[in-house]
Fold this sequence. Notes:
Elements: H1 10-19, H2 24-52, H3 60-82, H4 87-98, H5 107-115, H6 122-153, H7 171-196, H8 226-234, H9 238-250, H10 255-258, H11 270-289, H12 298-334, H13 340-347, E1 358-359, E2 385-386, E3 411-412, E4 425-429, E5 432-437, E6 444-449, E7 462-465, E8 470-471, E9 478-481, E10 495-500, E11 503-508, H14 532-565, H15 572-576, H16 582-610, E12 618-625, E13 628-637, E14 643-648, E15 670-673, E16 677-684, E17 689-693, E18 698-702, E19 708-713, E20 718-723, E21 736-742, H17 744-753
Parallel strand pairs: 9-11, 12-16, 15-21
Antiparallel strand pairs: 1-2, 3-4, 4-5, 5-6, 6-7, 8-9, 10-11, 12-13, 13-14, 16-19, 17-18, 20-21
Helix pairs in contact: 1-2, 2-3, 2-7, 3-4, 3-6, 8-9, 8-11, 8-12, 11-12, 14-16
Amino acid sequence: MHYNSNVLEAFDSVEHIMRDVNNGWLIRYLHSNTASAFFFTVYFHIGRGLYYGSYKAPRTLVWTIGTVIFILMMATAFLGYVLPYGQMSLWGATVITSLMSAIPWVGQDIVEFIWGGFSVNNATLNRFFALHFVLPFILAALVLMHMIVLHEKAGSGNPLGITANYDRLAFAPYFVFKDLITIFLFILVLSIFVFFMPNKLGDSENYVMANAMQTPSAIVPEWYLLPFYAILRSIPNKLLGVIAMFSAILILLIMPYTDLSRSRGIQFKPLSKIAFFLFVANFLILMELGAKHVESPFIEFGQISTVVYFAYFLIIVPLISLVENTLTELYMESDESLESDDRRQLWHGLNMVQSSPIPYSGIADRVIGDGVPLLGPDAIPKNSRISKDGTTVICPSDPEKPAGLYSGKANVHGHIPPKGTNQLVTVEHPNYDREVIDPNSGWFIKRLRFTKTIGGGEVNPDYIQNMEGIIASNPKSLITTGQGNIAEDKGLINERVIQEGSHTRYAASTFNPVRSDTPRPWGIYFQDSASPQMEGLVELHNNILFYLVIILFGVGWLLLIIVKKFTNTESPISYKFSTHGTLIELIWTISPALVLILIAFPSFKLLYLMDEVIDPAMAILAEGHQWYWSYQYPDFLNSDDEFIEFDSYLIPESDLEDGTLRMLEVDNRLILPEHTHIRIIITGADVIHSLACPALGLKCDAYPGRLNQTSVIISREGTFYGQCSEICGILHSSMPVVIESVSIEKFVSWLREQ
């Protein structure tokens, strides 16, 4: 360490860093000017939040944490400003810390406690140095909390002030390159200050060694503290001045409550815009007044600006919000041509259905008007243009569901018809050539392309798979199955042909099933998530894998360079003499630790989210045996007033029906209701087993003589397959776990049958 936190040596140690230490001047100028640049960007960030209404629910907690970060930033900057111990450092520390003496009865004691004596001395400098080192770590933790709460609550907003969950862009590469431009511009401007005018934002008095016997002509803090310093000096009473100064910062916290506007942001509100920019101008005036001497007319201007500053938050914002709400309501009531649904969309800033023709391919919030048939002669072709009578939609059969619930961002080619009809809707999907939605069931149906057509009649060879049936892409051909699945591309179907008017109906009896919740041949990724904890696990895996790939390529590149460069032929000197690079060794050691710390935050968060914190609706007892599972429903009794319980054995391959899964099907499935919080208590009867179901994110060991528990909320109906995940003996692979999720109504009916 070259810096010495001693009142006699602090100033000289800083000069030593500037003059004698290699690149010490660069480190110090980068440190001081980057701090100023950081405050500049934070002020812009706060202004953006005020302009776009980022403080309104559901981002109120994000705004609160941001305000705490702002306060700690100013504290950290003040502590660092004292450490060079020039004239402005000494007297700035004396003035600011003396503000605590305004507190009645205990104020002077607090000041002396902060100083560690009766004036600024060695103890003060040591304490400030330690705090200046520690506070940035607390700031880093708060910034992580800030980001976590932002993404947990509602995500980033947008300039329109509307919810855009159904129309989001990927962060990479779009926003990565957008932010890189800003970063490069930031580095360019910072470099200009560092290399050409490093002391522009500082004070020349701080290049004079601290002298307790001589007061500077004007005690002025750093530029980013000047507005609040001006508010402090504008009030003659010391205690009221201190209260006003701190209130000027904390008043940001009341914005979620004083802004009474029914829509977020002021980008479409002329009155609020005028008030906002007047507030910005007033803030800059306060910044200028903070650097002036305490004399007329600066005192009067400071008092006026202080009143305007507080009036903006307490009077102007609520009043203008009420006026704008009233004007909007009057306009909406006077325009009788707007229908109620359209008016509601306009109120929330959503896209309205325009009266002029618009491209049919697009996204809208809900179905307005009657559905338009997709199939047959009245079908609307792709990219056709429609008018106000129809809009595009994004979700099968339920227009209130959010976009991308099933297939991400969908480009819908047809309207969602009313339920109970036999119309279909075709949707573009990045994973398939085409998808079809059955309005009765809401299923997505994937098109399969068969190598040949089996059976008689004129049947289109392009078939579409659904768990409930098969519908040919030709609207005059309808294919159904007895058991709900069809063959893969090269599978065989034994069928009989039944002519029914213009339709050709097939009944298939032999097929190879295609499932989404079972292991797949050559599958290298997760099964489809069917519970919140599995969705969290998949998201954590994807996020970590992104950074691991970057690390893999980075480390691999370094190893290749080392192998290529540091060989006897390429570099005889480096091959002969071994050297040590302290800096690169530190980076090589610390970087993995930092990566692990970054990974720890989301992983611990997910771990606690997966913990059971509320009472479940029901419980299941699962007991592992060699080699089968026993299940018990302790909350329900059968007709004999006994607990519902049964054993679940693997079905031998010789007894399997056509289409069932080898080594995965059982004679008695575990039946569980969907959307229900279920506690699963697991134990072992003989050896260690493990109940695992990948689609649900379940894996819990079963120990003899010990009870383990986990919980699950199954988010959809389906059949989910797993296996014992502990080597429990010779027939370890013969202990499948089959969980069938049904609706609550079906589950109640099943209970009554037991």
